[in-house]
């Protein structure tokens, strides 16, 4: 029944479980799930910063009691003892070593480019916004690994006297380019012409194929037949072990211009190259919070579909981690929508009975593969979540795409009732 939506316990109000939370995050709240998602796809591009814990001031009771001062008239004046001098020297040396060990690398990292494993010569696309400052342009070029050092870019701009001649727009450039060649292209102007292929954040491979068909006339079936991980794993090792041989999650969302008649292979490689450029600072072979990179991509795809508000993504990530730690089903509706094959209608009772590994109402843990192509902000949120004890979130009654988060089940029910009242 299309409109038979039940009081979904768990994702929208499950009974508490007695299992304690795991070690990744502390949680003293009853174990129960509780999310109601809002619209998908992010339009924002701001970085979420996780707050750092504030340490209480140190109090050494009894160790700093005041001593009566000794008058210079009561005893002869003496210089510091040799032992005190030695201790002072050691302390100074240690302080200098600390500065060299910690401060210098920090400063060096700030002013020097980060190392990258992106090979030179890979095509990437960047957009230079109207009115962008030199710092914004240098940052975008560096993040895309088109230049390896912003200082070389500034030097090239000065040498070519190009500061007032740089033009905004869309550019096709290459990783590891000579900075002067980059500046010459920016002076010449945008080099992206012809048809544009728009891949929005949160699209599935199926939806991407539909956009490709609309832009270039390549049929959905032809694109999907080519879009197999096994066709590309030799050139893109992070695809090894991709679930069900799918490229789901790795066709990076962006606006592309690929000429007038690209092949399906040309398009897929352009999207994979963009993924490599966007994630170049991430170690694909590492684990993050106990998850492999492919599991991080699964989580990032869920985060992408759960909130369109970039600042909320680390919070959504914390809820997912807390549920995993508590061995509770995630019960995220976006995964159910993927399991049933898409559609814009709400999740129904019958949907929750779908026999699929993506049914995170029935199955505990993450989905076996990503459910969409996430933005870099969702990937970073999955790697670096907020540190909370939240177990629930529900769309805000303000109907502005934001959510209310809580660790208390009763508070979640109140938030859900408030949202339901505003939505009716």
TrEMBL record:
Region listing for Disordered, in residue ranges: 1-77
Cellular localization per UniProt: Cell membrane
EC number in record: 4.2.2.29
Keyword match Lyase: yes
Protein name: Endolytic murein transglycosylase
GO cellular component: plasma membrane
Entry membrane topology: Single-pass membrane protein
Physiological role: Functions as a peptidoglycan terminase that cleaves nascent peptidoglycan strands endolytically to terminate their elongation.
Gene3D superfamilies assigned: Endolytic murein transglycosylase
Pfam family, one: YceG
Main subcellular localisation: membrane
Annotated family: Belongs to the transglycosylase MltG family.
GO biological process: cell wall organization; peptidoglycan biosynthetic process
InterPro entries (UniProt xref): MLTG-like
Source species, domain of life: Bacteria
Residues the record marks as site: Important for catalytic activity: 306
GO MF entry, a single one: lytic endotransglycosylase activity
Transmembrane segments: 83-104
Keywords: Cell membrane, Cell wall biogenesis/degradation, Lyase, Membrane, Transmembrane, Transmembrane helix
Enzyme class: lyase
Presence of the UniProt keyword Lyase in the record: yes
Catalytic activity: a peptidoglycan chain = a peptidoglycan chain with N-acetyl-1,6-anhydromuramyl-[peptide] at the reducing end + a peptidoglycan chain with N-acetylglucosamine at the non-reducing end
Coiled coil: none
């Amino acid at each position: 029944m299309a409109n038979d939506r039940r009081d979904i316990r768990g994702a929208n109000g499950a009974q508490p479980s007695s299992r304690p939370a795991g070690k990744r995050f502390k949680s003293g709240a009853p174990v129960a799930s509780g999310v109601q998602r809002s619209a998908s796809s992010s339009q924002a591009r701001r970085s979420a910063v996780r707050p750092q814990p504030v340490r209480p001031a140190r109090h050494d009771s009894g160790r700093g009691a005041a001593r009566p001062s000794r008058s210079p008239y009561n005893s002869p004046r003496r210089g510091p003892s040799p032992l005190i001098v030695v201790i002072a020297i050691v302390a100074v040396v240690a302080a200098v070593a600390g500065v060299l060990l910690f401060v210098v690398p920090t400063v060096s990292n700030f002013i020097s480019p980060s190392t990258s494993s992106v090979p030179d010569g890979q095509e990437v696309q960047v957009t230079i916004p109207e009115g962008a400052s030199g710092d914004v342009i240098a940052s975008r070029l560096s993040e895309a690994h088109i230049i390896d050092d912003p200082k070389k870019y500034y030097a090239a701009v000065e040498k070519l006297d190009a500061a007032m001649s740089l033009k905004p727009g869309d550019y096709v450039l290459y990783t590891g380019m000579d900075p002067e060649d980059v500046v010459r292209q920016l002076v010449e102007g945008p080099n992206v012409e012809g048809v544009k292929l728009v891949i929005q954040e949160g699209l599935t491979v199926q939806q991407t194929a539909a956009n490709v068909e609309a832009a270039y006339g390549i049929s959905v079936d032809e694109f999907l037949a080519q879009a197999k991980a096994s066709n590309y794993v030799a050139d893109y090792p992070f695809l090894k072990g991709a679930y069900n041989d799918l490229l789901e999650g790795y066709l990076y969302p962006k606006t592309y211009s690929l000429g007038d008649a690209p092949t399906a292979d040309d398009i897929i490689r352009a999207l994979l190259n963009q993924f490599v450029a966007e994630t170049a600072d991430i170690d694909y072979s590492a684990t993050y919070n106990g998850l492999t990179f492919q599991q991080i991509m699964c989580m990032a795809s869920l985060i992408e579909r759960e909130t369109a508000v970039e600042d909320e993504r680390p919070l959504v990530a914390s809820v997912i981690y807390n549920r995993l730690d508590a061995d509770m089903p995630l019960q995220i509706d976006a995964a159910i929508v993927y399991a049933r094959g898409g559609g814009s209608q709400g999740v129904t009772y019958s949907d929750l009975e779908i026999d699929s590994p993506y049914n995170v109402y029935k199955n505990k843990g993450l989905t076996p593969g990503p459910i969409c192509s996430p933005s870099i902000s969702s990937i970073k949120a999955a790697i670096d979540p907020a540190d909370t004890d939240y177990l629930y979130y529900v769309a805000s009654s303000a109907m502005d795409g934001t959510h209310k988060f809580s660790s208390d089940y009763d508070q979640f029910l109140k938030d859900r009732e408030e949202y339901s009242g505003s939505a009716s």
